[in-house]
Amino acid sequence: MNHVPRWLNTLFLTVVLILPGLIACSPQNSSDVATPGPQSVVIPLMTRPVPDELVNMDYSGIHDDVVTLSGGRWEGEPYEAGAASRPVVGLVEDFYLSGDLDGKSPDEAVAMLWETAGGSGVNSYVAVVGRRDGSPVNIGTALIGDRVQLRAGRIIDRHIELDVIQQGPNDAACCPTETVTRVWEMGVDGLNEGEVQNKGTLSLAYLEGQEWLLVGTAVPDGLEVILTVSQGRVAGQSACNRYFGSITAGDTPGEITLGKLGSTRMACPPAVMELENRYLKALSSVTGYGFLNGKLAMTWQQDGEIKMLLFSARDL
Question: Over 90: is that where the pLDDT of 38 sits?
Fold first, then answer.
């Protein structure tokens, strides 16, 4: 069995503030998600379900009874009277697909949900929502797995395809390293999964061929913070200057070491330089990476806490 550092498990369970404005919420903290206010937009009866509709509706296939989300979250009764542990289900933020899954108009929407019973496990589900008599209805739900990391998703030829990192035969439950593509299609009885396409073990090759754009923090208009990885080198734009350095895979998939970072010497306004300094200091501390709801999460441990930088992918 691989000896995987336990801190990787915390990627799913504990996320802390790194840069001002950069906040990622774990499932247990999803109560921080604001409940949408009254909607002023009238949704035509024959359009696909939109994201605002998915946060307040019924979902089946997770528990024996239907789960009704309110503001993207549902909480069940405590397992024991007065106990804190209870079942919780929530909608994964920033994930939404739409396309034709049943050959009929309008198109369907695809959401992801997470579910926890209060322990270390966090189950993920894929859910299809169609429009029936003008209202959004959950027409299929399927389990993806426990502590599965989502890399990307799409709808192709009436099939849902999700690129995920899941537990391999020798992986600890906390720390998946097997990269696969999972495929589902709509049937008369709901979602049916097809053959799993194994893509190999997680490696730095999965970070290559794309620009990774820092998200979740305020960057002055016209500037971007960018990360690229190629052939053992890391480089990019740190708000003001270009930076570069080495990146080396560790003994365990998901572990990395960054060499000393160099950069150009342009001067920018103080606020930009402050952001750049914080970013480069954080990046130089990174010791691991994974994926969180389709975003690259570069992580390190400080004073017993897991800290992370989040990036969205952009094709080169």
Answer: no
Cβ contact 93:293 at 8 Å: yes
Average pLDDT, the chain: 86
DSSP string, 152-173: EEEEETTEEEEEEEE--TT--T
Between 11 and 246, the higher pLDDT residue: 246
CA 17 from centre of chain: 17
* Pairwise CA distance, residues 175 & 253, whole Å: 9
- As a dihedral over the C-alpha atoms of residue 70, residue 74, residue 80, residue 81, rounded to 10 degrees, the angle is -10
User: HSE (CB half, 13 Å, CA atoms) of 93?
Assistant: 17
Name residue, tokens 């933020």. 93
Is residue 253 a contact partner of residue 201, using CB atoms and an 8 Å limit?
Answer: yes
Of 136, 106, 143, 101, the residue nearest 122 (C-alpha): 143
